[in-house]
Specification:
CATH topology of the largest domain: Tetracycline Repressor, domain 2
Number of domains: 2
Number of helices: 11
Pfam families: TetR_N (PF00440)
Keywords: DNA-binding
Helix content: over 70%
InterPro entries: Homeodomain-like_sf, HTH-type_TetR-like_transc_reg, HTH_TetR
Organism: Mycobacterium cookii
Protein name: HTH tetR-type domain-containing protein
CATH class of the largest domain: Mainly Alpha
Number of strands: 0
Distance between the termini: 73 Å
Structural class: mainly alpha
Order of helices and strands: HHHHHHHHHHH
């Protein structure tokens, strides 16, 4: 079997497993079900994955990649960093609500995402955000001393919260409310000159 064919087979198994998880749920879908959906034997499944848990992990990785591709497309429609981060926030709130199956993700995909270790999820999100923040430093949208990793982690944690925790004060089902929330509290904090703020405080 060539490397390309092996990669194709592995991808087929992952896609078939995801289809089974969507139809039957992760707990009920079996290796036999996945093999049948993929049109391969059980032994072929075990050539690529040691057990069902490994398949679930691969599906989570696949879903994570898809999630970031879709979020990147949403962010690319924005010009400034403020607009990009606002669009990212709107994307994750709508993804959680599952408002459009073609653009976002169903509950099984959400469950798959959450099977990944929280630390891994956070690191992936920080890595995803880093180029956007670095570009904003070049254009002057954020302060020159901004710590990219720390700022990325802070906003990643905001996204995680928007994804998982309903607001008691804001209508997070409204995209404009979500966008305004980010515009008001996120980018201004990245852009303010902290040393100047300290000097102003000290002067008082």
């Amino acid at each position: 079997m060539t490397q390309a064919t092996a990669a194709d087979t592995r991808e087929l198994i992952v896609e078939s497993a995801y289809a089974c998880f969507r139809k039957q749920g992760m707990q009920k879908a079996t290796i036999v079900d996945i093999a049948k959906a993929a049109g391969v034997s059980r032994s072929t499944i075990y050539e690529y994955f040691r057990d069902k848990a490994a398949i679930v992990e691969a599906c989570a990785e696949h879903t994570s990649e898809q999630f970031y591709r879709q979020m990147s497309l949403a962010m690319d429609r924005g010009g400034s960093l403020e607009d990009k981060l606002s669009r990212a926030a709107v994307f994750v709130t709508q993804a959680r609500r599952v408002i459009a199956s073609e653009k976002y993700f169903d509950e099984e995909a959400v469950s798959l995402l959450l099977t990944k270790d929280a630390g891994v999820l956070l690191r992936e999100c920080v890595d995803f955000l880093a180029p956007h923040l670095a570009a904003a430093k070049i254009t002057g949208e954020v302060r020159k001393d901004l710590d990219i990793q720390s700022a990325g982690e802070w906003f990643a944690r905001i996204l995680f919260s928007l994804f998982s925790t309903p607001s008691s004060t804001l209508d997070m089902d409204d995209p404009e409310v979500v966008a305004d929330f980010v515009r008001a509290h996120v980018v201004q904090g990245f852009a303010n000159d902290r040393s100047r703020s300290r000097r102003t405080t000290d002067a008082r």
